[in-house]
Design a protein that fits this description.
heterodimer, A: about 55 residues, mainly alpha, 2 helices, elongated, B: alpha+beta, Ribosomal Protein L24e, Chain: T, Alpha-Beta Plaits, 7-stranded mixed sheet, 6-stranded antiparallel sheet, 27 helices, about 20% strand
């Protein structure tokens, strides 16, 4: 059971590490569009931009 | 307790002369004294603060210093005068955010920086509305947007901006890009809060489960359990301190304003449970609720996030509309001439420019087709899903999509004058108006929150007597589960979705109450036949009366009417388009209201009313009875003979009959009022199955008619053209105007039907009814939920995390129910 005294603090540190990773992901805009990327795989890369009006 | 502390603090600030009275910063060496405000000498850190305070107190607005919650931002050392804002006087720059309305007043949309509390809003409103020449100010605290209306002959925009700067705030033109950036920031921080809470919740749960499991078998070793508790505490601190911040801030704001908002019970619940758990951890004795706290915060934040996204999505129809105008346009260097284009920013376009719109591109501004022929998709503006045919001379609306072949468009209106800009402005106005229903719900919610606080305290007291160990979490559950968020969301959510959905179908709601009143209307009055007919005469029959062949008659009639813009002339032109240009008329003279006289190839002709023609040809013209009274008869005569008779008829709009039938099915009585003669009006009423009609009614008579209906207890919806008959529309409980283009901005109606299509009007009534139904469902659901949850929580059947689910779930259910109003069968869905 003594290993718990190592593992539990370690898990706390790990949670903070995961939080930091997510923070960077969020800051770099990876969560800004949660729907668009799902559609991009269905589209050809060389699709003409004719219908895209923006 | 907190309020008392805040009051004490404020008193201390006023006594302490070492801090600046205006911005609260320490008064340094160059500090200034001597300005008396509210009977006391005040100290200031700099000339800027002194000037700002002087401006505020000088205007008699020193109440601001009592009302404010935060020290004001430190203004610039020297407040800039109007000359610093002289650049904003440039009309080209103003075009982007200033509109001129019908009365000649200008209205600007500004983004105010430095607004921190409702006292700031009050101060700015007071200062601006006291400027001579300002006709109206409204500031939205939530969005920091200000709308200022002023009379340009008495005041300049730079004076307004300088007035705001003088009291220490900054006003900048409102820019959609800024608003988008703000949304993106808000979204990211909301997501981050949810994530922190979620991560904390999962891990704290991991530490809590062993204790639950081992609890049955005698418990964990004490040192392990203490370790777990400290680990849970370490992970709960960020959740409470960061993720739950919005609840605490909201609750603090509510308490300062002396009202009981939604956040008060939530913040209280979190704070009490967390404090009790920390105390238990420190003493290594008693229960901890870290798992409940984190889970509760996570669920609430998730609910809020979903709701935030749903609300944003509901408003997106509007935002999308604002963005459909492209950023670039292909301007023609010369027109007519060889096609040579240059790419320019749409904001650089000026009326009179010619732009080339290729197939698949959007028309950059309102204008007229100068060359080319094709079809344009206006579905996003009017809800009309079929492309509309365009040829030289047709109007082209900015934002519509060219569906077929290249068009050259002469630009007529740009920027804020365009149809799209007017639509967006109208909808925004409707959305910022506080709705009566919303206010009622909010008032109930406040009472409800107070009741919840009292009940939670009573529950805690009762359980302390019965079972002290359970009292705390039961009280927390009661606080949380009964929070009336769903109650206060029920109405605004449904109204926002319905407004967006109506805009998508080409009905622009411009007043907050329109949806509710449309749904409640018992009588629908069509003002003017033009609302049900095309408003365009059509030749339905041509009869030769003399020896001249019909073809020749048509050609002569066409030649005589060629120069005329009269509806009859246009109808004849459409009818006889084939024979165009074969002959030409000379010395044609128009006799208004009677007809036209002229010479074609040496022969004198008249075309017009029976009496007018009889004046040249003598009695005759046949006495064939009119086909029905609705027709207009036009005769063509020469000096010696009656030649031809044209029968013209106004055609019903497609869908008009269906609309009247549908309104009947909804249990609404349909009326038709018109200033036209009895015959045509009766024919239209008969054709549509309208029983209640009145012809030859002047505006006063129409108004009296509507007032009569209202006296009899009816709720009247009036459909008119919105520009000419404002008093009649104002008399009705709710008014819908049919309008396009520039008329939109001046429309005084509660809603505007952009397409003029009666079918869309039918949909509007149906959607309004559906919205009201959803509001009732939501209110019923929220009430039932709260009534059911309260006794269960008070009885100790609901743990805090279940309460969190229940409360978030009830709010999300309300929003999702509102989103049902966005149906699948809407037109114009091929876009995006």
């Amino acid at each position: 059971m003594d290993v718990l005294f190592l593992l539990i603090p370690l898990s706390v540190v790990l949670v903070f590490a995961i939080g930091a990773v997510f923070w960077f992901a969020l800051r770099s805009g990876q969560f800004d569009d949660l729907e668009g990327p799902g559609f991009t795989v269905l589209l050809d890369d060389d699709a003409p931009g004719g219908t895209d009006d923006r | 307790m907190q309020i008392a502390a805040a009051a004490g603090e404020r008193a201390a600030t006023q006594r302490d002369t070492a801090t600046c009275f205006h911005c609260g910063q320490p008064v340094g060496q160059d500090g200034r004294r001597g300005l008396h405000i509210a009977g006391e000498a005040r100290a200031f850190c700099c000339g800027g603060c002194e000037a700002a305070a002087h401006a505020i107190a000088g205007a008699g607005l020193d109440a601001y210093y009592r009302l404010r919650e935060h020290a004001t931002g430190r203004p610039a050392r020297e407040a800039p005068g109007p000359e610093a804002f002289a650049a904003y006087e440039d009309p080209a720059l103003q075009a982007a955010f200033v509109v001129t309305d019908a009365d000649g007043c200008r209205e600007a949309a500004l983004l105010l920086e430095g607004i921190r509390c409702s006292a700031c809003v009050w101060l700015n409103e007071q200062v601006l509305s006291r400027l001579p020449g300002v006709a109206g100010v409204s500031i939205n605290y939530a969005t920091r947007r200000a709308r200022v209306r002023w009379d340009p002959s008495r005041l300049r925009l730079s004076d307004i901006l300088a007035a705001v700067a003088r009291i220490g705030y900054r006003a900048a033109p409102y820019d959609r890009a800024l608003a988008d950036a703000a949304y993106q920031r808000e979204r990211r921080s909301a997501l981050w809060r949810v994530f922190v809470a979620g991560l904390g919740m999962m891990q704290v749960m991991m530490y809590a489960v062993p204790a639950y499991v081992a609890g049955a078998e005698g418990g964990l070793p004490l040192d392990v359990e203490t370790l777990m508790r400290w680990a849970s505490l370490a992970l709960t601190v960020p959740v409470v301190a960061y993720s739950a911040q919005p609840f605490f801030l909201g609750a603090w704001r509510d308490l300062k304003a002396r009202r009981a908002g939604m956040d008060v019970p939530v913040a209280l619940g979190v704070a009490v449970a967390f404090a009790a758990s920390v105390w238990a951890t420190l003493r290594a004795d008693g229960e901890v609720y870290f798992d409940s706290v984190t889970m509760f915060v996570f669920l609430l934040l998730s609910g809020r996030y979903l709701e935030f996204e749903a609300r944003h999505r509901a408003g997106e129809a509007l935002a999308h509309l604002g963005r459909i105008v492209p950023a670039q346009a292909a301007r023609l260097r010369r027109f007519p001439g060889p096609v040579e284009t240059e790419d320019v920013a749409v904001s650089a376009l000026r009326p009179g420019d010619f732009v080339l719109v290729r197939p698949g591109e959007r028309v950059p501004a309102d204008g007229v087709v100068a060359a080319g022929e094709g079809a344009v998709d206006e579905s996003l503006l009017t809800g009309e899903s079929r492309p509309v045919a365009k040829r030289a001379g047709s109007g082209a609306v900015g934002g519509s999509l060219n569906a077929s072949s290249p068009l050259v468009v002469r630009v007529e209106r740009v920027g804020a004058d365009t149809t799209v800009a007017a639509i967006v402005r109208l909808v925004e106005r409707a959305l910022t108006e506080r709705h009566r229903l919303v206010e009622v719900a909010d008032r109930y919610a406040h009472v409800f929150v107070l009741a919840v606080l009292v009940l939670a305290a009573a529950t805690a007291a009762a359980w302390l007597a019965l079972a002290p160990g359970r009292a705390l979490w039961i009280a927390v559950s009661v606080l949380v589960v009964t929070c009336p968020c769903a109650l206060s969301l029920a109405t605004p959510a449904a109204l926002a979705v319905a407004t967006g959905e109506l805009a998508r179908r080409g009905i622009i709601v411009t007043r907050g109450h329109a949806i509710e009143t449309l749904a409640r209307a018992t009588d629908v009055v069509f003002d003017k036949t033009g609302t049900l007919t095309e408003g365009e005469l059509r030749v339905v029959a041509t009869v030769a009366l003399g020896a001249l062949p019909l073809e020749r008659c048509r050609a002569v009639a066409l030649a005589l009417e060629a120069a005329s813009e009269h509806p009859v002339a246009r109808a004849l032109a459409r009818h006889g388009a084939g024979g165009q240009g074969t002959v030409a008329a000379v010395c044609s003279v128009s006799h208004p209201g009677r007809g036209i006289e002229g010479e074609v190839e040496g022969v004198r002709y008249r075309i017009g009313t029976h009496a007018f023609c009889a004046g040249l040809a003598g009695p005759g013209g046949g006495d064939t009875p009119p086909r029905h009274a609705a027709s207009t008869f036009v005769y063509l005569v020469a000096a010696d003979a009656w030649l031809a008779r044209f029968e013209l008829d106004d055609t019903l709009k497609p869908g008009a009959a269906a609309l009247v039938r549908r309104l009947g099915e909804m249990g609404k009585r349909v009326h038709l009022l018109s200033g036209d003669a009895e015959g045509p009006v009766r024919a239209i009423a008969d054709g549509l199955g309208i029983v209640a009609m009145r012809a030859q009614a002047d505006p006063a008579a129409k108004q009296a008619y509507v007032a009569g209906l209202q006296r009899a207890g009816a709720t009247v919806a009036m459909i008119g053209d919105g520009v000419n008959d404002a008093p009649v529309l104002a008399q009705a409980d709710v008014s819908v105007a049919l309008g396009t283009g520039a008329e939109l901005a001046q429309a005084r109606a509660d809603a505007v039907l952009v397409s003029g299509d009666p079918r869309a009007l039918g949909q509007a009534f149906e959607l309004a009814r559906a919205a009201l139904r959803v509001i009732r469902q939501n209110l019923a659901w929220a009430t039932v939920y709260n009534l059911a949850a309260l006794p269960a929580a008070a009885a100790g059947l609901v743990t805090p995390w279940m309460a969190g689910i229940g409360m978030s779930g009830s709010s999300v259910a309300v929003v999702l129910n509102a989103l049902r109003l966005r149906r699948r069968d809407r037109p114009g869905e091929q876009e995006d």
